[in-house]
Design brief:
The chain is of the alpha/beta class. It has a domain of about 100 residues: ATPase, nucleotide binding domain (Nucleotidyltransferase, domain 5). The protein is built from 14 helices and ten strands. About 40% of the residues are buried.
Length: about 280
Amino acid sequence: MANTLIVESGSTKTDWVILTPKGQHRFNTKGINPSANSEMYLLEIECPELLEYATIIDSIYYYGAGVIDDRTRTIIHNWLKPYFSSCKEFQIESDTLGSAIATAGDKPGIVCILGTGSNSCLYDGKSITDNIPALGYILSNEGGGSKIGSELIKAYFYRSLPEDVSTEFYTQYPLSKSEVVNALYNDGNPTAYLANFATFLNTTENKTWRKNFLFPLFQEFIDVRIKQYSDYLAYDIHFVGSIAYFYADILREVLQYNSLQCSSIVQKPIEGLVDYYK
C-alpha cells in the first residue's frame, strides 16, 4: 500500500488524511476555494504537523470547493507541489465528485452538497454526467450556509424577524452595519463569514420560526438543483455537508413534501473517501 494523502476541502474547513501501511494520520485546517480566493495560506504556519509526513507521500487525491476548471486545478497543484515535491501522483477534482464517491460509491444517483455553499450533480457511478452550474455565493448557494446567513442578516437589519428571534440574534451577534459591510468587502472569505451565522438556527428557541425560515430556502435548492435533472424521481438522492446534517429534520420534511426520498445524509465526505481509497 502506497502512502496516500486524501484532502477534502470546503470553503470553511479542510480535512487531510494520510493513509500508510501502519495506519492513519488526520489533520484539519481552514477551508480553501481557489475560485473565490487564489491566494493560498502557508501550510508551514497553518499545519506544520502535516508537513512532517510530506516526504513520504506518493499520491494525493484532492477534492475541493471551487475546483471548476484547469485554472483552479493549477492553483491547487502549484500550491501543494512545493510541499509534497516527491509525490508522484496528483489528482485534483471538485468537491462534488468527492461527495459522489463518498456517498454513492459505484452506484448512480443525485448527489447534493449543502454546506457553506451548495451544489449538486447527476452521477453514473463513475463520473459526473450532469451538473447545474454553481455561480458563486452572490448568485447561487441555494440552501447553503452562506445563503442562510445572508438571508438571516438581511432579516435582522430589515426588521422582519420576530421580536424574540431578533433579541436572540443580537445577543449572540451584536452587529453593526459597518461591521457587516467591512467583512463582506474586505474579508478574504466572505462565504465563510456569512455561513457562520447559520449556526444561529441551531440555538434559537423559536422552532416554528426556524422551520418557516429554512423551508423555502431548502425548497429553492430542490427546485434549482434536483428537479432540473431529467427523471429525477428515479434516482437515489444523497446529501453531504453540515447544513444538510444539522438541519436534517427540516430537509427531510421538505424532501417529503416534494415526494423525494433521501438515501443518506453525511456531514463530512472524508470518511467515505478514506474507505474508498483504503
